[in-house]
Request: fold
Amino acid sequence: TESLTVIELSKKIGREPAEIIKKLFLLGVMSTINQVLDKDAIELICADYGVEVEEEIKIDITDLDVFFESAEGNPEDSEERPPVVTIMGHVDHGKTTLLDSIRNTKVTAGEAGGITQHIGAYQVVVENGKKITFLDTPGHAAFTTMRARGAKVTDVTILVVAADDGVMPQTVEAINHAKAAEVPIIVAVNKMDKPSANPDKVMQELTEHGLVSEAWGGETIFVPISALTGDGIDNLLEMVLLVSEVAELKANPKRLAIGSVIEAQLDKGKGSVATLLVQDGTLRVGDPIVVGHSFGRVRAMINDLGRRVKEAGPSTPVEITGLNEVPKAGDRFVVFEDEKTARQVGESRASEAQVNQRSEKTRVTLDNLFDQM
Ligand code: GDP
Ligand code: MG
Reply:
């Protein structure tokens, strides 16, 4: 065929559909997002954008990343957002104890007494009113599977190392993951309450892996803590905020939401239940949404305290229902303005996933793009 719809073309050339519709309008053509364009119209638009013949264009029209990455909204609306933190470290070094301890002592201020619900992530409010989001998906699973799917959700990693045990294989693994993802590491030297604690040994051993403590002239923040007694945890959270400030984490609460799946499962009564981390924009009940290869409308949202909420801003984890299928951890989600587009993108992604299990993207140049249409 020698035709494409506006949305297909927008994906191929990486431009907003609305922009294309406007251009067509200026050329005297009234169109909608699903308007079928003939070869002449396509060439006009391409020429107008000055799309180079050599330019590489993704032909995968079901690629959510195009929507995910398309900058939207007014940059002036961008605001500071809470950091998203992952805790990593060797087995038994105290990751779960630390997550529980932070959660129990810092349950969202003013919400004390709320029934905490396990949704795979939670948010705490630190003394100065700033928030921090923790992913509490067990082990390294969250980090590794999400990264494997191309999702980058973590802003800061807390590397837990037991002071009575030192650097172990999974400590090194965690360091490598964080480095590969270019996520800053804060070292929590745990179990300081134990008589056998030897923090100097931990510092010494980590030096060999490129993590040199500030005390020794390096740049890595080390915080001695006891996840069991709670000692040092306030200091640790302060350091997380310090590192986040340097990173200048920003998001635009006014745009349509995008983000990633933290975890998801099928519930007998509720159907597909997914915990989403909103990475940019604001997610609202009723939003038409595509999540991985599933889609629908956000039917209900529950926060980490088990309470029903109507909206969730940047860096907020929420559990949602309303999807037609169960997505996977690390899948991305994108909210669309209208349900029709969400359905169209969702359905084409679902059918593509069925037909083509290979995740390979076919890359073509504009030169042979027209031949393939
Ligand atoms: P994980 O495998 O990294 O999640 O480690 P856990 O949080 O399950 O902790 C393993 C064991 O170490 C448990 O028995 C904890 O009670 C204990 N533990 C964790 N943190 C501390 C600490 O700060 N001090 C002491 N004495 N024990 C701790
Ligand atoms: Mg654990």
In short: The chain has eleven helices and 21 strands. Confidence is low (pLDDT under 50) at residues 53-61, 358-373. Residues 95-96 surround magnesium ion (ligand 2) (CB under 6 Å).
